[in-house]
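All the exercises in this workshop are built on plain-text protein records. Sequence and backbone structure share a record, each on its own labelled line. The structure tokens are whole numbers drawn from a learned vocabulary of backbone shapes. The record below serves as our worked example for the rest of this section.
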Amino acid sequence: MTITEEGVLEALKDAGAILHGHFQLTSGRHSDTYVQCARVLEDPALTTRLAGAMAAKMADERIDVVAAPAVGGIIIGFAVAQALGVKFIFSERQNGEMVFRRSFSIEPGQRVLVVEDVVTTGGSVAEVVALVKAAGGEVAAVTSIIDRGGEKAFGERYLPLLRLEVESVEPAGCAQCAAGTPIDSPGSRRLG
């Protein structure tokens, strides 16, 4: 199953997933553009199509498990695992630290595909990669629907469906903060 970068971008626009304003990203950086992938993932048929395209990138490789960080990676991670016909697990924060809970585990030697919805710095992905390696698993690759550009906190092979260069800045250098523009923080890191 294939979908072009233009097709992914069009799907994001059609779903109203590209927002403009003043945002604090999950990474802590600020941006005037936010991609709300949850709007795309509301559509099961589109989610299945995107997941199929992500799985197709791994068609010639053995994948034993798909792992994703909560919350953003859960839906697309599950769909990719379904497309690959493998087990799916997710990590979540406990006392501020990313962990596998709910009896989720990775066996030594298992090949793991790490899946996320949107990656900016890749901090959450790097935490999942560390969990996989600590369990003795091997990270086959990382994939996401969108790569927002910039340097990543992980060094594994990265296969996003769409590279969407969106500027983000540290809060201290944010012109919108300096102008007193109210900020929105739609990411999931600060959930309950």
Summary: The beta strands are 18-24, 30-35, 65-69, 87-94, 97-100, 111-119, 138-147, 162-163.
